[in-house]
Design brief:
single chain, alpha+beta, eight-stranded mixed beta sheet, five-stranded mixed beta sheet
Length: 794
């Protein structure tokens, strides 16, 4: 793939933007100072209407092809390029875009940016490659009533024109700005870095406090841990109403979706943990990614794998009561295992052959989750002290520069007693992981695709904790021996036993039917993280029971019996002075009771909450309670506030992002197909916010009542979705549809629809994996289904 840095090396950008929000127009001039390496100059520019290009103040002819400006320089060496252009703003959540919210009956508009991975070119002409680091001077002219913020502090502000201090040397994808009417909360770190959280005017002041304080603690923690001070004078965080990802680590101006940043004293424990993890993740990027940046996208793991480990490590140190490591086990290790056993999956370090492939690298289960587990494995082998000593050397040597994998290995190696590069390289460049049977290992795959290569993975010592990225395939008698001694094991050992068995049962190495008696060992279990692991097993068993059949009802009865003791112990509401463990276990148990469709449970919930204001329901259990009530309220009125139109109004008007998410979950739980059809129309007409569209789609998709309607809508509206969604989101649709397909007819329809799209680089890898995943699931239903159903009916 052509690198434009070969033609021109930028040193400094002077960007002057005039933004008219009412006209949705950006009019701009960008000046780039740098060195022409050849007489041909090429710059990235996408969706920009270029009116003129000058080099050293002389007009030059230019062409625009494939989002690249090409011009001829009168000389090599130092030159100054000036480009004048306009750009029409839209709401697609990439590049520079518009986001709106309602406040006091008025529609307020925010202008925000999302330049990672390669969308800076949608705001200003540039060398939009990570290695093309430069400094930036940014000036923005807009409505004087707006708050205007960027990476650096304001240098001057007058009559609607704001000029910012010069940035450090950094990559284009890290430049950012936000414009709009915002409120804020500010504190400072021990090193007097000003930390400010911004949000829309409709947000209560208290929703900004936790994020601000946790961010300051995170910067202090990383300053000490890395022995490399945060280098900027301030850190801003902004909650954007419409945001495609979870957050973005723009240096000095981190942007978030609202639910990833905002919480308060009454928020659920899981919401506080989520916010903490996201903040810790993004702020670790101030070092991993911003101060030191990968040279090219094939080493994206240098940013994301580390940040995905550090989010847990830092949160656990700052707020140990939140249980960050438990979340790592279930939210990082499990997704990595489930994704990495599929044919066609990418390795952590992945070659990029086409610009359109760049968004596909951001696979949360691989570059983030698997990479984080590999970093955990390395950290434990080296020891924490040695690991972080090596990282300190890495930051000091490569500050404001770009690196490749070998630079990291060189920094860590003096602190290790083994060959780090030799150990880590196979794990990074090879997809998959092994199943270990005795002294033997083989690549673990869910589908026996003969074209998939076999690999050998370096394993210095087999441990039964959770650091090693492998499965331990115990013989049945070995498994029973360990299970009988379950109570004496550590949490990691217990979880490994359950995680490994669950995955092995998807292959001939273990039997799916044996998961039923395994579950029967746990009715008296009180650890929420063990029940969290059991949830994965229960979810996998659902594929064997067709909705609305007698066997499906028997499975639901089985689940009701399984959780009954814990429901009786915990009840519907929190008890005085109960443990954090019980507070986190209750929503798991209530969710399973909701799934069981037990009439007695439904009566109990209705009696206790049927006339309760939604805002008064404990946020820790609200999702499960609302799901039960809305299922019952489909065709009859339990409570007028549960009418779907009222829930939608509350979703549209509530400032609480956690409540809005709970409302979408409740709406997606309906049992009325007519309502499901109505909700699908909300995806297109703007009722559901663009940033929530994929989330609501997935939740509806997983509801058996809605699934056929969702699939019909999807195939009919693919072209619209492909236009409406960003590059990083569109491939999630076929990915999640593949997750729920369990019939041959649905599989054929999926393959017929997507087979012609295999050549699309944005979709190709996702589709290859999806085809293999569906085939493996259908085979498993045929081979294991009868025995699983028989085990339930015993």
């Amino acid at each position: 793939m052509e690198r434009l840095l070969e033609y021109f090396t930028p040193a400094h950008y002077i960007i002057d933007l005039n933004i008219d929000k009412a006209a949705k127009l950006l009019a701009a001039t960008t000046i780039i100072e740098g060195s022409a390496n050849t007489e041909t100059i090429k710059l990235h520019a996408r969706t920009l209407d270029i009116s003129s290009v000058t080099i050293n103040d002389q007009p030059v002819n230019f062409e625009i092809n494939d989002d690249v400006i090409t011009a001829t320089s009168p000389q090599t060496g130092d030159i100054t390029i000036k480009i004048t252009y306009t750009h029409q703003l839209n709401a697609n959540m990439q590049g520079v875009y518009l986001s709106t919210y309602n406040y006091n009956g008025q529609t307020e508009t925010i202008v925000a940016t999302q330049f990672e991975s390669h969308y800076a070119r949608e705001c200003f002409p540039c060398i939009d490659e990570p290695a093309a680091k430069a400094t930036f001077n940014l000036t923005i002219t807009t409505d004087p009533a707006d708050t205007v913020i960027s990476n650096m502090p304001i240098k001057n502000q007058e009559n609607g024109t704001t000029t910012f201090d010069t940035t450090p040397k950094m990559s284009t994808y890290l430049l950012a700005f936000v414009i709009g009417k915002l409120k804020k909360h500010t504190t400072a770190t021990k090193n007097n870095v000003e930390v400010t959280t911004y949000a829309s005017l409709y947000q209560p002041d208290e929703n900004l406090i936790y994020a601000t304080e946790f961010a300051a603690k995170s910067l202090d923690f990383y300053d000490d841990l890395f022995q490399t001070p945060y280098p900027l004078p301030k850190l801003d965080q902004v909650a954007i109403p419409d945001f495609e990802a979870g957050a973005m680590e723009n240096w000095g101006l981190v942007t978030y979706r609202e639910q990833a940043l905002l919480c308060c004293q009454s928020s659920a424990l899981d919401q506080k943990l989520y916010v903490s993890l996201v903040i810790a993740h993004e702020l670790s990027h101030m070092w991993f990614g911003d101060l030191v940046t990968m040279a090219w996208w094939d080493d994206l793991w240098l940013n994301e794998s580390f940040a995905s480990l550090m989010e847990t490590y830092a949160t656990d140190k700052i707020s140990p009561d939140l249980g960050a490591w438990n979340d790592f086990y279930s939210g990082t290790i499990v997704p990595a295992l489930r994704r990495d056993c599929l044919p066609g999956v990418q390795p952590v370090k992945c070659e990029v052959k086409d610009p359109a492939e760049i968004p596909t690298l951001f696979d949360g289960a691989i570059v983030y989750a698997k990479g984080a587990r590999l970093m955990l494995m390395l950290m434990r082998l080296m020891s924490e002290n040695n690991f972080f000593s090596g990282l300190t050397d890495y930051f000091k040597k490569h500050a404001y520069q770009n690196t490749v994998s070998d630079d990291l290995w060189d920094a860590l190696s003096p602190h290790a007693d083994f060959n780090i590069k030799e150990f880590m390289t196979p794990w990074l460049i090879q997809p998959g992981y092994p199943a270990l049977t005795g002294q033997d290992q083989h690549r673990f795959l869910l589908a026996g695709n003969s074209s998939e290569p076999s690999y050998t993975y370096p394993i210095p010592v087999v441990k039964d904790d959770l650091s090693g990225h492998y499965l331990i395939n115990l013989e049945d008698h070995e498994f029973q021996t360990v299970l009988n001694d379950f109570d004496s094991k550590s949490i990691e050992q217990k979880l490994r036993l359950l995680y490994d068995r669950q995955l092995l049962s998807k292959t001939p190495l273990a039997k799916s039917a044996d998961l039923i008696p395994l579950l029967n060992k746990f009715p008296t279990e009180t650890e929420f993280i063990i029940w969290d692991a059991l949830l994965f097993i229960i979810a996998d068993l659902k594929i064997f029971f067709s909705p609305h059949t007698s066997s499906d009802q028997q499975f639901k009865n089985f689940i009701k019996t399984l959780v009954r003791a814990q429901f009786d112990r915990l009840g519907l509401t929190s008890l005085p002075n109960e443990s954090i463990n019980d507070t986190k276990l209750r929503p798991i148990i209530l969710g399973l009771m909701t799934f069981s469709d037990d009439p007695a449970y439904q009566v109990t919930v209705t009696e206790q909450f049927g006339n309760t204001s939604i805002s008064e329901i404990d946020s820790n259990i609200r999702t499960a309670i609302l799901a039960t009530l809305t299922k019952l309220n489909d065709n009859r009125s339990i409570n007028h506030q549960l009418d779907h139109q009222n829930l939608i109004r509350l979703y549209q008007t509530s400032p609480d992002p956690e409540l809005r998410s709970d409302l979408l979950s409740a709406l997606a739980a309906i049992k009325n197909p007519d309502l499901a059809a109505t909700f699908l129309s909300y995806l297109q007409d703007g009722t559901i916010r663009p940033g929530d569209r994929i989330l609501f789609f997935i939740r509806l998709l997983r509801n058996p009542t809605a699934t056929p309607l969702v699939l019909d809508w999807f195939y009919k509206n693919w072209d619209w979705l492909n236009e409406a969604e960003g590059d990083k989101t569109i491939s999630d649709y076929p990915r999640y549809i593949a997750n729920i397909i369990r019939t041959s007819s649905d599989a054929i329809r999926f393959k017929d629809f997507f087979q012609p799209k295999l050549n699309n680089p944005v979709l190709s890898r996702t589709l290859e994996i999806a085809f293999a995943e569906i085939e493996a699931r259908l085979d498993l239903i045929v081979t294991d289904g009868p025995d699983v159903i028989a085990a339930i009916t015993k």
